[in-house]
Amino acid sequence: MKIYKTIEITFEQNIATVWLNRPAVHNAFNSEMIAEITDCFNNINNEQDISIVLLRGKEKSFCAGADLNWMRDVSKQSYAQNLKESKKLYDCFFSIYKCQKPTIAIVHGVALGGANGLLTACDITYCIDSTIFAFSEVKIGIVPATISPFVIKRIGEFGAKELMLTGRRINGKEAENYKLVNKSFESIEALENYMITIIKQLKTSGPNAITNCKDLIFNVCNVLNLNETLEYTAKMIADIRASAEGQEGMSAFLEKRKPNWIK
């Protein structure tokens, strides 16, 4: 993997942790970080040794959203340049959302504005109770546009209306109630212990099955209408049953042994 300036990637037992690494500004993102996150997640798809990706923030916070100096500079640019920057930000969230590996966001400190695009683009998101979340864009006269597809997918239309229109701050437990996160914990230690269990469960799943399952969910939710899903889903399961991994998994189950992807 590349060495980046605004993010850091660490590896342990086939798990890549992508650390947002601008702690002096609570990991607020600028154009450089946006480009680096996008590049990182696109490259992770090609790394065979990576089975799970964690997204975290260094030191005091997960992410304070957009860097205010970057926002100020962008606001002074032409409309065409503004549009280009906005598309790059969307591409950043989409690179996480479409990542072929399971992605887990671990959120602490604050997750403000655009930070919610990062965490809602992940497959699973956990936080601690003291974490503060806010869609604060309306408070400075703008809207949470590029994050909205990912946020609304996760929490629904009317939850999004309440949080986005008011811009009010909520804590981790409230975020869990809104389904903005999958689960909130009293402490980072409790979160880490729970995450160990989830990671173990992910590692017992077939690697190709996970990728295919992510493609299945993406296409059913975003691409196909209900009539089209008949042909698509039937073909997918038929293809996978006949695949080497599918055959190994079924044989292992019938023979009451572990499949060969479990070391």
Structure, explained:
- By secondary structure, the protein is an alpha/beta fold.
- The protein folds into two domains: 196 residues, 2-enoyl-CoA Hydratase, Chain A, domain 1 (Alpha-Beta Complex); 49 residues, no CATH class.
- It is 50% helix and 14% strand.
- The chain is built from eleven helices and eight strands.
- The strands form two sheets. The chain has a six-stranded mixed sheet with strand order 1-2-3-4-6-8, with helices on both faces. A two-stranded parallel sheet has the order 5-7.
- Helix 1 packs parallel to helix 3, helix 4 packs across helix 5 and helix 9 runs antiparallel to helix 10.
- The longest helix has 19 residues.
- The two termini are 24 Å apart.
- The mean pLDDT is 95.
Q: Determine the structural class based on helices, strands and strand pairing.
A: alpha/beta
Q: Name the shape in a single word.
A: globular
Instruction: Fill in the CATH topology of the largest domain.
Output: 2-enoyl-CoA Hydratase, Chain A, domain 1
Total individual domains: 2
Order of helices and strands: EEHEHHEEHEEHHHEHHHH
User: CATH superfamily membership of the largest domain, which one?
Assistant: 2-enoyl-CoA Hydratase, Chain A, domain 1
Report the end-to-end length measured between terminal Cα atoms.
Answer: 24 Å
The number of helical elements comes to 11
Query: How many beta-strand segments?
Result: 8
Strand residues, percent: 5-15%
